[in-house]
Design goal:
The protein is mostly helical. 76% of the residues lie in helices and 0% in strands.
Length: 157
């Protein structure tokens, strides 16, 4: 009879897998183009991360995971799903408690979702906010945000 792993070991592996899925989804999302298979992998990895963070993560992990799914859905031109997941992430990531890079990324993803919905006003507003906040970030955080902004359509005018 085999022993069951300790709950701490299971949680550790779930955190590792959540992080791995999260990182893979972001890597694919930052690519300027993807194959159909990579699009599917990006969405599956984002959902896997969200599922695992729901089990072992805190509120911040869960908000970031929902934001990642929103971003992936927006990149795939699935505006309804993107809007749903964006709404789950924004209360924390646009709050006064959010870190500056979190707020900047929240605006970048919101710009992407607005672009997918063809909401030009919101697209322009969030893109502007993300760009302005990016300028205030330390270099490492700015580089991460710029990698995301590069794959988001620029607003017209």
């Amino acid at each position: 009879m085999s022993e069951q792993p300790a709950s701490e070991d299971v949680a550790l592996w779930q955190r590792r897998l959540a992080s791995q899925a999260n990182n893979r989804a972001w890597t694919l999302a930052e690519q300027p183009s993807r194959t159909v298979d990579e699009d599917e992998e990006m969405l599956q990895a984002a959902h896997a991360a969200m599922y695992l963070w729901k089990i072992v993560g805190d509120a911040r992990n869960k908000a970031h995971a929902a934001q990642l799914v929103a971003h992936a859905c927006a990149l795939l031109k699935l505006p309804d799903a993107a809007s749903c997941y964006l709404a789950k992430s924004q209360p924390l990531l646009l709050s006064d408690d959010a870190l500056p890079w979190e707020r900047a990324m929240a605006h970048a993803v919101a710009a992407n979702v607005a672009a997918a919905k063809a909401d030009e006003s919101a697209h322009r507003e969030h893109h502007r906010a993300a760009t302005e906040l990016a300028a205030t970030l330390p270099e490492r955080n700015r580089a991460l945000l710029q990698a995301t902004l590069r794959v988001i359509p620029a607003p017209t005018s």
